[in-house]
Amino acid sequence: MRRTTRARRRMRRLHAGLHRRPLNFDPDRHDTHRPESGWHVDDHRQPLPAEPPGPPVPGGSWEVARGLVRDYQYADPAIIREICRSGPPEPGRNMLLEGRFYGLRFYLGLRVGDVVDGYIEEDGRQARVWGWNYQTLEGHLERGQMDQEVRKWLDTGEVEFHVHGFSQRAPIPNPVVRLGFILFGRATQVRFYRRACRRMRKMTVAALTEGDGGAGGRAGTAPGRSAVRGNRGAPLRRGGAAGRPGR
User: Fold this and answer.
1) d(Cα 86, Cα 81) in Å, to the nearest integer?
2) In terms of CB atoms within 10 Å, which of 67, 75, 124, 186 comes out highest?
């Protein structure tokens, strides 16, 4: 029991110290939606239970999924899980994840970049969207950004979970860990995305089937900030300072 208490205190100290860590890449130098030499671009869309056309239905698929995205519940804890966060996603807030990699555990620092809460237009179609992204801090095994959001297409009622990653391996001083990540890191990353999509559908369906609405109800009051988006749905950076320390 004492050991558990010590571990929790250590996690809180690690999280509290994240504000001193800078990002380990410069997001202003990259378009995270375009392939780039040396970087992986992953884009996955998972259909969720549909709703009638029009705005999201209270307690429906979109609201339930928004709660799951907000709380990072779609992540498979066998691969990665959230340890500490200061509250709902908000630009500049830090979070600490525990990554599990072939029996080893790594504590990974991240910073929320943007929160998206509004509408997008893509190929002449309009969708209600809520989501957020995080960016990697110094000491992380990777460099890059991951966006996660839930969309409802107003013309058809289709609801989908969208996760998009832009990443590369960061410098890893430990030679054993570095070799392991070179050999198995990419496969683990792809497995994370696939399991995230499956979990999102399974958890959304389960919540709707049970008539719980708890996640959706909480999501309905979740704070968010609007982000302007282009006609292809890619976020436009505000003020060139998204995700920087001290925001």
Assistant:
1) 15
2) 67
Amino acid at 134: Y
* Digit-coded pLDDT (tens) for 207-247: 999 875 444 333 333 333 333 333 333 333 333 333 333 33
Residue at 67 is within a domain: yes
226, part of any domain = no
Is residue 247 assigned to a domain? no
Residue 32: predicted pLDDT: 93
CB atoms within 10 A of CB 90: 15
Q: What is the mean pLDDT of residues 1-19?
A: 81
Q: How many domains does the chain have?
A: 1
User: In this structure, are residues 24 and 137 in contact, taking their beta carbons and an 8 Å threshold?
Assistant: yes
Residue 184: give its domain's CATH number: 3.30.530.20
* Summary mean pLDDT of the chain: 84
Residue 118's domain comprises: 15-31+39-219
Q: Tell me how crowded residue 153 is: count the other CB atoms within 10 A of its CB.
A: 19
